[in-house]
Amino acid sequence: MRKRDRSPKTYTRLTHPLVRDARDAPLRRATWEEALDRTARGLAAARGAFGMFSCARATNEMNYVAQKFARVVMGTNNVDSCNRTCHAPSVAGLSAAFGSGGGTSSYEEIEHTDVIVMWGSNARFAHPIFFQHVLRGVHNGARMYAVDPRRTSTAEWAESWLGLNVGTDIPMAHAIGREIIHSGLVNEAFVLRATTGFEEYRALVEPWTLSLAEKVTGVPAAAVRELAHAYARAERAQLCWTLGITEHHNGTDNVRALINLSLLTGHVGRYASGLQPLRGQNNVQGGGDMGAIPNRLPGFQDILDGGVRLKFESAWDTVIQPHYGLNLTEMFEAMEDGSLRAVYCIGENPAQSEADGEQAVRRLRELDFLVVQDIFLTKTAELADVVLPATAGWAETEGTTTNSERRVQRVRRAVTPPGEAREDIDILCELAARLGHDWKYPDAEAVWNELRSVSPDHYGMTYERLAEHQGIQWPCPHTDTLEPPYLHGRLWETDPERRGRPAPFGIVRHDPPVDLTDEQYPIRLTTGRRLDSYNTGVQSGGYASPLRRGEYVELCPEDAERYGVVVGERVRVTSRRGSVLAPVWVDTGLRPGLAFMTFHFPDEVDTNRLTIEANCPIAGTAEFKASAIRIEKVSASGPALR
Amino acid sequence: MTVTPLGIPRRLLEFTLDGEPVRAPEGSTILDACRAAGKDVPTLCEGDTLTPKNACRVCVVEVEGSRTLVPACSRRAEPGMEVRTGTERARHSRKVVLELLASSVDLSTTPRVAGWLKEYEAKPDRFGPDAARVDEEPRVDNDLYVRDYGKCILCYKCVDACGDQWQNTFAISVAGRGFDARIAVEHDAPLTDSACVYCGNCIEVCPTGALSFKSEFDMRAAGTWDESRQSETTTVCAYCGVGCNLTLHVQDNEIVKVTSPHDNPVTHGNLCIKGRFGYQHVQNRD
Ligand code: SF4
Ligand code: SF4
Ligand code: FES
């Protein structure tokens, strides 16, 4: 099958509001007045049973206003976004260890480090420009290790590839930890001074000998040993991960297991030594920082902290619920039991991005009221009672976003939005006004300045300074100085007062994937991204990529031969939840028993019919990376059910 | 341990530029110093994000004590040096270089070259009308970018950007030697059969327009490309969380091409296919 021009469904911009007159009536054009009135009524009727899906692709300013809308106008902390489907475990894991959920290093530091571990991350495809910084590091002499079930194009650059079995990251990490301990390579001074729980950790990893790890992970003991020694002996080392670590039913535990290695060796809190979770969406970091998550207020401040609540209550003249709200996953469950009746969904497409997609659609349909604010009529918007046309965050709106290295940068309006499309903040304020809250923000900068006044980490970042420095990394508490580019330097302070809370080792245990392979479902399906496409394809489908081939199920050559299938042949892929038809692709980077698919073309092949909604209990992220499937040949004459 | 490392402090060195004493940080090139002093030295193959290639030699200056003219873009300034930028010899050399280049390749889309031709009184046509001209049709083999080697000055910047300096894809190389040397992707294949990943970083660095956006190429062909009507706005990529900076070039409310600021700490002028070309969705306005 040659690369060919694939034009998936292209979406055209929404140019005017749409409303539905009855549940079964089609969406029809409406005026803004009518659409906003309808929305305000729908929301007012759902106080106490409301959820806000904020948007990790929109600006910080919009996320700030959206969470404020949920908390002040609707009186609930039920606000979340798609961080839940990707990096919530990183945030949960990092904040449990260090009290702050951001990646600890800047990109530049990876150019000056000695060892780079890329774990569960095909950054060459998913984060290409970050990977350029990695390659600079490699050209400068850093040794790179790739830990990944697939021999990806990232792994091609590694000194050694550790092709572990899907879902065995904790055994691998524990074995590395044990090897470091047994070889006397622990940074004892750091462990003593800056961590807690080492003895418990030592006991936890003790059973994970190299040979046991080899049996469980499938990686030769010598390779695990080599990685352990290289990482521990390095003067500086960076540990990077993405969704290969987080999209598991125990994603937060996986993250903790990796952080443990940095605590053991002191590879955190110093220049070029750190932890780098690479974010999938342009503003996942910022959305959380702005408080568009159920447990934190803007500036990542804990809702359970009375002093913090008081500050926001007086700033916003409101009462803040003294408990955590529901996260995205819990909101979906609350739709099921009827305790969540209305949803305000901004720029997200859960009908196609949630695991077990059919269930997600069914739940959205059961709501009393769904309003979707987006730039396209997505599959989710098609289910809505009211659709509000918005502007594109990055090209039609003023504001800021925050990248994976915590750098807050200005986004700017370059083109005029189509038709009657309006800015997110403007729409939210119109609705707030209809519901009794008169918010005055003349522009995005006014929102930002309000945020600065309540978030110490952002206080020093005026729009002017952001432009001057080409973005500033948080924390930035002062308007006249900049902080170091890495976090947690405090852990190296000798004065305990300044060192602050020590970082606890995570006592986490191996727990294999929920969806076990067996005779009926013998293949492990894992998912990921391709270079030219993105998520459910709504945006990336809009341009003519010469690399695009459409969706297919990738198998290794041995499995393709075993099933007697050739490239391009359509097969049925079935999991315990559903079944899809997809053409075969053969990839030599896969090993027998491992298949790979993406979510980029849900209109052609709805991969999420296959994935399992087994969620990380701490972060709520689903196990997109580990489903059990079987592959069947479809006879030419047989029924071609979807 | 809460201090920001600033790197080794750079000392200033002193030398003479066109008779005037100047100070430049250690490690600067003569070109850096010229630019800091507001002197305009023409450059073609110099690339601010790439190591100097010294291929074109339009930037030559005279250095006291040096037998040959030296390229300003790559020679580092030394204390006590005496540099002259506009001598008869340097000007003559630039004139000849420009004549040779302009007679063999099409420099019509190379910025500023028309002005230099005039300034140095270069007469490219003195070698006759068809002096070694690389006359070949532009290659349009995909929807994203076009290669027009009739405009190529063999500066190798695209090779460096695609190779180990940035992208590390190595799709672009030099085929042939000497007079036959030319830029090619693997055995002169169409891009769609090559290792190219369409990051467009080669277009970003190409000084002549030999590599260009298909959008620009089509608009030029249609006579609608008009830079005087374009605005440039720098914003942040809407795809992954790396946070690359994009400069959107907009004409009549349409994004017509995307470049990337070269001095940006995240991108250094580079992008991936999504950031460079994946903008169309916002302007599918029906
Ligand atoms: S194509 Fe452009 S960048 Fe490449 S060698 Fe030719 S002129 Fe230089
Ligand atoms: S240009 Fe590519 S690497 Fe950079 S932010 Fe956009 S998608 Fe990510
Ligand atoms: S610009 Fe100096 S040699 Fe080309």
From TrEMBL, chain A:
GO terms for molecular function: iron-sulfur cluster binding; metal ion binding; molybdopterin cofactor binding; NADH dehydrogenase activity. The keyword Metal-binding applies. InterPro entries: Asp_de-COase-like_dom_sf, MoPterin_dinucl-bd_dom, Mopterin_OxRdtase, Prok_molybdopt-oxidoreductase. GO terms for cellular component: membrane. GO terms for biological process: respiratory electron transport chain. Residues 13-433 form the Molybdopterin oxidoreductase domain. Keywords: Iron, Iron-sulfur, Metal-binding. Coiled coil: none annotated. Residues 524-626 form the Molybdopterin dinucleotide-binding domain. This is Formate dehydrogenase.
Automatic annotation (TrEMBL), chain B:
The keyword Transit peptide does not apply. Coiled coil: none annotated. Keywords: 4Fe-4S, Iron, Iron-sulfur, Metal-binding, Repeat. It holds the Pfam family Fer4_7. SUPFAM superfamilies: 2Fe-2S ferredoxin-like, 4Fe-4S ferredoxins, Formate dehydrogenase/DMSO reductase, domains 1-3. Residues 230-286 form the 4Fe-4S Mo/W bis-MGD-type domain. Residues 188-216 form the 4Fe-4S ferredoxin-type domain. Residues 11-89 form the 2Fe-2S ferredoxin-type domain. It comes from the Bacteria. This is Fe-S-binding domain-containing protein. GO terms for molecular function: 4 iron, 4 sulfur cluster binding; metal ion binding; oxidoreductase activity. It comes from Streptomyces fungicidicus.
